[in-house]
Amino acid sequence: MVQEKTGVAGSLESCDALVMVVLSPEREGIRIELESPSMASFGGEMRKAVRETLESAGIVHCFVKVQDRGSLDCTLRARTETAARRALAVPDREKVEE
Amino acid sequence: MKAKRLRRTSLYVPGTNPGMLANATVYGADSVILDLEDGVPVSEKDAARILVRNALRAVPYRGAEVTVRVNSLSTPFGRDDFAEIIPLAPEAIRLPKCECADDVREADALMTDLELKNGIEPGTVGIIAITESARGGRNLSEIAAASPRVIALNYGAEDYTADIGAVRTKEGRELDDIRAKVIVAARIAGVQALDSVFGDVNDMDGLYAEALRVRLLGFDGKSVIHPRQISLVHRAFTPSEQETGFARRVMAAFREASSRGAGVIALDGRMIDAPVVARAEKILALAEAAGCIPGER
């Protein structure tokens, strides 16, 4: 069975974003599911910010769900980075079982 | 310059709240405190650190001094806070739980190392030292003198009174001792003395009375926890017309006597000596900062 590692950060409060990063060895590339009131105007920039942040953290294969509530670019990047770090910090199951 | 800037109010802004972080400086406080310490639950320390770092990097803060209250280096979070925040060179960090000079020296050394690694002039980031215990209260003078980075002393009223076994009251007499210690140590070191928060955000009369009292004791400012507290504290820290008028006359008499080479100055039958002139200068600086008089000194 493939072990997925999940990290979540942020909130659904105004000006914030709730970001979930799921790491799985079976995934190919970065898939982003984005929900935002600013989708039409800033959807492209938001996806770019999420992708750049993940790549800076060394992540190239994952699923990301972003529920945006009007966050600034710096907030979205912070929430993505925190979720990514939290996912990366999940211990491997094998190691835990040892 | 940093040591002398106006800090009548220092507004706490929780490091977990993106909306408040983005608007931290719009309320008119002289200084803002982006908080990574007590305002942040342990489970969110990592998130707040990254959020505050990104805010420092991206938000065009204007009109107020921007400081960050980091976690103490005695906690598991302190070093990570320094590593993320110092490279962004906020004007100062607020260093909690200062117990002795070594606490300040340890922070100073770590800050110098991080400044050098990030191409920042060593000493750029100041320290506002916060003492929160009986031991810290006893060591305030050495804390203030431990580093040229120290620009102000502050104390945490809740932690301090809990540590000495006092009961918190609205009158605040249990704080008389620590307030006196903070003022005396700050004056000896030539740094500012900053008072703690007034916790009841609905008691505006109590806030004004306390702010006025601490100004008359010698404090340079007071921390606030809600934007609505800012204007009242500024009012308390604004000299009255009577004070300002007398200060202007003192300075005029001083200048006139100095031009004559006179050693002794009298005004309204009262001797004007160096401490009176120094007090008049401080009052005029506060009045000027509050916009009551144009810069004329």
UniProtKB/TrEMBL annotation, chain B:
One of its GO terms (biological process) is oxaloacetate metabolic process. Its cofactor is Mg(2+). Gene3D superfamilies: Phosphoenolpyruvate-binding domains. InterPro entries: Aldolase/citrate-lyase_domain, Citrate_lyase_beta/mcl1/mcl2, Pyrv/PenolPyrv_kinase-like_dom, Pyrv_kinase-like_dom_sf. Mg(2+) binds at E132, D159. The keyword Magnesium applies. Keywords: Lyase, Magnesium, Metal-binding. Residues 8-227 form the HpcH/HpaI aldolase/citrate lyase domain. Pfam families: HpcH_HpaI. Signal peptide: none annotated. GO terms for molecular function: lyase activity; magnesium ion binding. Substrate binds at R69, E132. PANTHER family: HPCH_HPAI ALDOLASE_CITRATE LYASE DOMAIN-CONTAINING PROTEIN (PTHR32308:SF0), LYASE BETA SUBUNIT, PUTATIVE (AFU_ORTHOLOGUE AFUA_4G13030)-RELATED (PTHR32308). This is Citrate lyase subunit beta/citryl-CoA lyase.
